[in-house]
Structures are given as structure tokens and as C-alpha cells.
Amino acid sequence: MKKSPHAWRGVFPAITTQMHKDGSLDLEATARHTDALIASGITGIVFLGSLGENQTLTGDEKRLVMREMIADVKGRVPVLSGVAEAATAEAARYVRDCEKLGADGAMVLPPMSYRSPDPEERLAHFRTVAKATALPLMIYNNPISYANEVTPEMFARLASVKNFVAIKESSGDTRRLTDLRRVVGDRYALFTGVDDLVLESAVLGIDGWVAGAGIALPAHNQWLWELMQRGEWEKAREVYRWFTPLMHLDVHVKFVQYIKLAVQECGLGREWTRAPRLPLTGAERKTVLKVIHETIATAPKVPKRK
After folding, report:
1. Which residues contact 202 (CB under 8 A, 6 or more apart)?
2. Residue 25: DSSP 8-state
3. Are strands 45-47 and 79-83 parallel, antiparallel or unpaired?
4. What is the pLDDT of residues 147-195, one digit of tens each?
5. What is the pTM of this model?
6. Which domains does the chain have, with CATH numbers?
7. How many CB atoms lie within 10 A of CB 147?
8. Cβ neighbours of residue 213 under 8 Å, at least 6 residues apart?
9. Cα 194 from Cα 148, distance rounded (Å)
10. What is the pLDDT of residue 114?
């Protein structure tokens, strides 16, 4: 497979923010999971994305998470933070603070609390955040969850902003990947953010994967990526079919609870989330646990990495 010309490529998992049962931050547990992900071979990591419960943390907590995790990573891989502030000015201030703390970049979301009907407002938000920092930035397009779509044509209009370097494409429509390549070529590193479309996306040509559910089984997640990058499609399909029930957990509205439960059952953290999210109970919990436990029980052996 052709090697990406971009500095950002490979698996950049979106990690959970680990918490105690009372909802307070558990930075030690977050660091332990971070270390396990790095050991699996990832090439970057995203803290405080949607899976990291960005919007339930205070500004001070987010800055604390970033300071402590940057110190833990010690430059082993690029460290990104999600930027999901509702106000453009606050998003600009936060990304400046991340730069001062030593982050290597950021993943910028649209202002999630505002469903804008006007593409110009969305473009202005992204441009203002980019102007506030010299950090390289990934733009996160997820119209299903956040209503504010960034189309290929809009990415073409943002192409002159040099520190926009990557796109996390999570529209759920793999046709969008081809449209992006057709409209903007190789201007941006192109990442998928939908776990249960990763193989289809890899066939169409992506540079990276912002993985979600696979953080519960980091070695398997990395193995699948490497199989696809080597073009070993038969084996990749086999692993993907095994992995897909777990990956489906990434696209449910309760994906945070589901993935945190998977992380717990794999021994890499705990399931606790912060309100308004509540722990899973009853039949729903049993159903999700069944998926997780069957995935663990039938896991193929990961060969040693070369």
C-alpha cells in the first residue's frame, strides 16, 4: 500500500478518561491505559474526545488531564486533545493552552451545542481556532452526532489554512472518503472515526484510524490495522469479522458506557462515567457483556510484532 505523505498516520486511538465511582478523575488509571496502548504500537493518541467525555469535564479538569498525560507519554507518540468548547472564543483559548502545555496537536469539533444552518459559521469557527495556535489540527466531521457537517467542498475552502493537517471522517458514509480524495486530493491526512467501517475505509485509502472500541484490545486493534496496511486482505477480513460485534459498540448512542465496560472487562480500566451518563443495568448490560465476553473468548492469537 502506498505510504502516506503526511506526518500523522496510523492508529490514533481516542482514549477514555478513567474515573472513580464518584465521577472524579482517575489519572493514574488513564495513564496505565495510555501505556498499554502505546505498547501495542499506536502512532498517536487523542485525549478528551467524545469517548473521553470532554463536555462533562470542567475547563480546569481538561487542562489537568492534558498536563498529566503529556508528562506520562514523554514524547513517545503525538498527543492530541479534543476541542469541543461551545463558544468559539473558549475553543481558541483552550487550544492555546494545550499548546502551552506541550500538546502535539488537537482534534477540533464543531460547537456541539449549536446546530448551525449556516456553513459560513462552521468555517469561521474552525478558522478562528486555527488562528489561535500553531499546533497541527485534525477536523472532526461527525454530522450524525453533532449535526454540523463539514463537506468536501468546505474542506477545500479550508485548505489554505496550513495547520489543518487531518480529517477525522465519521459521517458513516464511505462514499465520502472517495469524494474527499476527489475534491481535496492528498491535502489532508484522512482518518476514519467509525470502527465498524475501518476495513471498508482502508480499501478506499485512508492514512489513519481514530479507534474507539479497539482500545479494549489494543494488540488486536493494531494487528488489524497492520494487516490492512500490508494488503493482507484475507486475514484482515477474518480478524475484522471476529472484531465487528465489539466494534458495533462504537456507533451506539451509549458508546461511552459500552466501551468503558469493554475496557473494564479486558482489565484496562473501569466502567465509571460521569453524569448525565449512568452505568448500564439490566438486560442492556447483559447484552453488552455477552458481546464483550464472546469477543474475548474467541480472540485469535496476535503474532509477535516485527
Report:
1. 192, 209, 228, 229, 236
2. B
3. parallel
4. 788 999 999 999 999 999 999 999 999 999 999 999 999 999 999 999 9
5. 0.95
6. 10-297 (3.20.20.70)
7. 13
8. 195, 246, 247, 248, 249, 250, 255, 258, 259, 262
9. 17
10. 63
